[in-house]
Design goal:
Number of strands: 6
Structural class: alpha+beta
Number of helices: 5
Helix content: 25-40%
Distance between the termini: 31 Å
Radius of gyration: 17 Å
Largest sheet: 6 strands, mixed
């Protein structure tokens, strides 16, 4: 075990990053988006890459909040958090698997009509870069890639469709 940890990170860093990921998902599911919530998880220069495109800084945070708001409820489960860096590094790369269950809003179900399924479920992989600061580890780059989905995705407002119709400029790790 010690040999494996020395080639990646120390156990404390790994624990802190995994706890940050779990806390982030719990915040999403509990919708705890109070003033400054994102500072507990992200750097100010956060860059995200999602199926909707690339976003930076405050726009990336708003995109996260908007995405969650398209559902009546969500449940995000992370597993297999892998953290890679040299001991004592101030930046690390991390990845984790995620199972994400989304319950559609009543308005979505009504718009889709009789027989609409209530769930949109995604199995995906997150890739991230984190930096250590005086506040601890924070995510500076994060991307999510769907491996599989079941059900229909949420209905998107026209302005969202238009905003993200532009080509994206590459993965979050760039």
């Amino acid at each position: 075990m010690d040999e494996m940890m020395s080639s990646t990170t120390n156990a404390r860093d790994h624990f802190e990053v995994a706890t940050l990921v779990s806390g982030f998902f719990r915040t999403l599911d509990e919708r705890r988006f109070g003033e400054g919530w994102a500072r507990a998880y992200f750097t100010d220069d956060l860059r995200t890459t999602t199926p909707l495109g690339v976003a930076r800084g405050a726009d990336a945070v708003r995109q996260v909040e908007e995405a969650i708001g398209r559902f009546a409820a969500t449940l995000h489960i992370s597993s297999d958090v892998l953290v890679r860096a040299e001991r004592g590094a101030r930046t690390v790369r991390a990845s984790w698997n995620a199972h994400m269950t989304h319950v559609h809003l009543d308005s979505t179900l009504q718009a889709r009509g009789e027989g609409a399924g209530p769930l949109f479920t995604v199995g995906g992989v997150y890739e991230a870069e984190l930096r250590h600061s005086d506040r601890g580890w924070r995510i500076s780059r994060m991307s999510v890639r769907a491996v599989w989905t079941t059900g229909e995705p949420p209905l998107l407002p026209e302005e969202t469709v238009t905003r993200f119709a532009e080509p994206v400029d590459g993965p979050a790790s760039n």
